[in-house]
Design a protein that fits this description.
The complex is a heterodimer of chains A (about 50) and B (about 450).
Chain A lengths: L3 E3 L8 H4 L31
Chain B lengths: L1 E6 L2 E6 L4 E5 L1 H10 L4 H11 L8 H16 L10 H10 L5 E8 L20 E2 L2 H13 L6 E8 L6 H15 L5 E8 L6 H10 E7 L4 H7 L9 H13 L5 E8 L7 H9 L4 E6 L14 H21 L5 E2 L12 H6 L7 E4 L4 E3 L13 E2 L3 E2 L2 H8 L7 H4 L4 H4 L4 H8 L7 H25 L1
Helix pairs in contact in B: 1-3, 2-3, 5-6, 11-17
Classes of the chains: A little secondary structure (about 50), B alpha/beta (about 450).
Chain lengths: ~50, ~450
């Protein structure tokens, strides 16, 4: 596309079927302890990539 | 839902529900803004008029771009539908496991930081150290309630956890002795002010802790303003050499140097750059959590300055990465390809449900920020959860629980926000801490921009 560059991203909608294993880190446990960002959490599920 | 913004010369379009990110030119940017509420003929004439001085913008070009937008819409990457609300409630209602504990191993501290949300480690109560017996029971409680979850997190927190070091070591040994038989993998974190670090402790932490959080506020004069001992002496000169030694010996394992910024240092990027210049590369800097009438509380007037600071930080990170001197900022970490699934994005941090704090006496609270507030006591590790009413309140926290979040483009990045921040700002765990929301949104805009810029640089 000439005017639109689309980044490679995980299709969040598709993870409705493959996600939810719950093995990932608790959001604020790792560093901040004062906010609830989930976007920077790693996915632990190999089937979800 | 679509969010459009311009930053650092980029025109960025986020499609919230699919997680798609588009970097577009100004023509496509304007067309996407009009696409849903303007008919095609009007879009074409408006674009032709606005860009009449541009030879590359003609009717055929505009129609081609419209086709591209339609294709992205059809592919679910633009204007995708939000279909997740019911999932958020169902997932949290059906999930009864606990997977993470914040162990308050020491309700005491060897520093006397006046801005401490935990009132110098005491959490509005008595000084106390957790006994091995209470800690051991906390691990057993976690295993009993963890269901089939394999990865379990335990954060040794305080106060200052190194003031109860022997118990930390005993508990790690205990956890390691039982994890295999229960098919669990413990991931430990320890958060420290660094004062008591020595080689023995550093070697143990580097062997056993998946992550270590090192508290430093940045420049010496900034750090020493709040982070002082009981004689009033600043901690910087004592802790920085120890932190350096820990990181040198850490062998690349995770750590974060974490600071707090306040009204006194809204130019906090200088503190982050100071940490980076000291050689630390995994950095986090958080807005202070305190009552709004505290002299160091962030003010409305600080907000535009903080926004600018986040932009300065993002641009400097792009620059330093290109120069081969990269560093990480916790809130700008964004893995667009392998980030969290939708369930993680809608159900929030899990406080009060899958994550809890344990006091030195074994009481359970929804998270470390509620410790000491009796009405939020959930029960204890001996008798289990008794206050199901409060737990149900936390079970309801998700990206859709608040009216204000439903139309917010950032809800799948913040998942409804921090319940403790909301409670402190509004008196309700389901309230809106608007100030925090605005900072959060700015950080996500910067984080995405960095991804776009770095993708462009890689081409």
């Amino acid at each position: 596309m000439k005017r639109i560059q689309t980044m490679q991203t995980k299709n969040v909608s598709k993870t409705v079927k493959t996600g939810g294993c719950g093995e990932c880190q608790t959001s604020c446990q790792s560093a901040c302890k004062t906010s609830c960002g989930v976007a920077n959490q790693k996915c632990e599920n190999q089937n979800n990539k | 839902m679509v969010h459009q913004y311009q930053l650092n010369g980029y025109h960025i379009v986020l499609d919230t529900c699919s997680g798609s990110v588009h970097s577009v030119d100004e023509v496509a940017y304007d067309m996407i803004a009009m696409y849903k509420n303007t008919d095609e003929a009007e879009i074409i004439s408006a674009i032709l008029e606005k860009y009449s001085d541009r030879s590359d913008v003609n009717e055929a070009e505009i129609k081609e771009c419209l086709e591209d937008i339609k294709a992205l819409e059809k592919d679910g990457k633009l204007f995708s539908e939000d279909q997740f609300e019911q999932l958020a409630y169902d997932y949290k209602n059906n999930s009864k496991v606990i997977k993470a504990l914040c162990l308050h191993i020491a309700h005491t501290c060897n520093l006397n930081c006046s801005y401490c949300f935990a009132s110098q480690g005491k959490y509005q109560g008595e000084r106390a150290l957790m006994s091995f017996e209470v800690g051991k029971r906390a691990f057993d409680f976690l295993i009993e309630h963890s269901g089939t979850r394999r990865n379990l997190e335990v954060d040794f927190f305080g106060g200052e956890p190194l003031m109860n070091w022997e118990v930390v070591k005993q508990l790690v040994a205990y956890a390691r002795s039982i994890e295999k038989q229960h098919n669990k993998n413990f991931r430990f974190t320890l958060t420290t002010n660094g004062v008591l670090l020595d080689d023995e402790i550093i070697d143990f932490l580097n062997k056993e802790m998946s992550n270590v959080v090192l508290s430093l506020d940045g420049r010496k004069e900034i750090n020493d303003h709040f982070r002082r001992d009981y004689k009033g002496k600043g901690s910087y000169d004592v802790i920085v050499p120890k932190f350096k030694r820990l990181v040198e010996k850490r062998g690349g394992k995770d750590y974060y140097m974490r600071g707090t910024f306040t009204h006194n240092n809204v130019d906090f990027t200088n503190d982050i750059f100071h940490m980076a210049d000291l050689g630390f590369t995994e950095l986090s800097m958080e807005p202070v959590v305190c009552p709004p009438d505290d002299p160091y509380a962030l003010t409305k007037e600080d907000q535009p300055i903080i926004f600018e600071q986040y932009e300065i930080l993002a641009k400097e990170m792009i620059k330093r990465k290109a120069e081969g001197k990269p560093f990480t900022f916790y809130h700008y970490m964004l893995d667009l390809e392998n980030g969290p699934c939708i369930y993680k994005r809608i159900t929030g941090c899990g406080s009060g449900t899958e994550y809890m704090a344990v006091t030195p006496w074994g009481e359970l609270y929804p998270c470390h920020q509620f410790v000491g507030d009796e009405k939020y006591s959930l029960g204890n590790i001996f008798d289990g959860i008794q206050n199901t009413k409060v737990q149900d309140e936390f079970r309801m926290c998700n990206a859709y629980a608040k009216e204000e979040c439903k139309d917010c483009w950032a809800k799948l990045y913040c998942s409804g926000g921090c319940a403790a921040n909301a409670y402190h700002a509004t008196g309700k765990v389901n309230g809106i801490y608007q100030y925090g929301c605005e900072l959060f949104k700015k950080r996500i805009e910067c984080a995405v921009m960095i991804q776009v810029a770095q993708a462009e640089q890689a081409e």
